[in-house]
Amino acid sequence: MVNRLRTASMTADEIFATGMRDQWHAVCPSDFVERGGIKKVRRLGEDWVLYRGSDGDVRMLADRCPHRGAPLSQGVHLGDRIACKYHGVEVDGTGTVAKVPGMPGCNLEGKRLVTSLPVREVGGAILAWFGTDPDAEPGPLELPDPLVDENVSAFLCYAEWEAPWRFALENLLDPMHGAFLHHESHSMFGGETTARFRIRETDRGFFFEKTDQRGVNFDWVEYCRTGADWVDLEIPYPATAGPGGSFGIVGMGTPIDAETTAVFFWRYRRVEGWERDVWRFLYRTVLEERHWEVLEQDRVMLEAMAPDADQAENLYQHDLGVMRLRRLYRGRAEELAKQMAG
User: Fold this and answer.
1) Using CA atoms, how far apart are residues 136 and 6, in angstroms rounded to an integer?
2) For the Rieske domain, which residue ranges apply (predicted)?
């Protein structure tokens, strides 16, 4: 029997605050977990430990030894397992107790007592399945198109913001803020400061887009639920920004806890051959710093907002995407709460 975490009895409000379960979430950049190293992270309000096994694959366990509850993240990497530093109990990547050095043959050995999450690596990031039933198989995952298209070149940008995860995601479903907050950006200075929007349904989510402007600024965003939640958007680039088409962003936001978010932005362009090399060089030497300045503007704004800022709003037509997103997650949180209670 797997030692279940507190997700077995969460309310809808708790789920809404700390993140949706029964889906994939981005956890951290792949290079955070080095060979022979152990990495502690907090995601969806719980502590986890990641390490690479002898085969190079990442394992992700609840950061709690099944013996006395000591943090496995303070343990010793033994190749295919971790040895707890407190009493030496060894736990493998499936969460099974492999050895109890202090008492060989102990009845703990051979039992799967630590929650282990299925993981995948894509685009330089580690994704994990956060399920309500630790014994159930993970759900399917359809990856964002730009992360699997061989004609797309992408850079992963990672940061941690002291703001609720919903603020970070809603920021991406708010194209109009680009014309104000980012009006001095080299890529978002153009376009009108007034607009009308619409929601356009797709088989994997919806577009939230301007009806009276296209190809000028941050004019649209696509929200997708494909096993993981992500957004895709494109920003037209001037010729001075190098070869390739529009500059695209795939974004994900994973709750660290109710007040903090891990944000992932894959910045990409569709480029091939020598143009790919030129674009990557130009990005690293000139454009990357500018893009971080834009992200910093978002971070400063969201971190300055009160945690309950969304409880005293006066929304209008530009906020249709935000309202749609909130209804979706509120409904999903209520479904999950009933499922856990049942």
Assistant:
1) 17
2) 24-128
Count Cβ atoms within 10 A of the Cβ of residue 120 and give its class: 0-12 exposed, 13-18 middle, 19 or more buried.
middle
- Of 27, 252, 282, nearest to 153 by C-alpha is 282
Angle between helices 165-172 and 320-341 (to 10 degrees): 140
Pair of tokens at residue 109: 């050995």
pTM for the full predicted model? 0.92
**Amino acid identity at 239:** A
For the chain, give every domain's residue range.
23-130, 145-330
The answer to whether 7 and 331 are in contact (CB under 8 A) is: no
Reading the block at residue 153, the tokens are 């070149």
Residues in the chain: 342
DSSP string, 176-231: GGGGTTTTTSSSSS-S-S---EEEEEETTEEEEEESS--SSSS-EEEEEESSBEEE
Query: Which of the following CATH numbers is that of domain 145-330: 3.30.390.30, 3.30.70.260, 3.90.380.10, 3.40.50.620?
Result: 3.90.380.10
* CATH number given to 23-130: 2.102.10.10
Cα three-residue angle 246-248-249, rounded to 5 degrees: 165
86: CB partners within 8 A, 6+ apart: 65, 67, 68, 70
Whole-angstrom Cα distance, residue 94 to residue 294? 41
Note the pLDDT tens digit of each residue in 124-177. 999 999 999 888 899 999 999 999 998 899 999 999 999 999 999 999 999 888
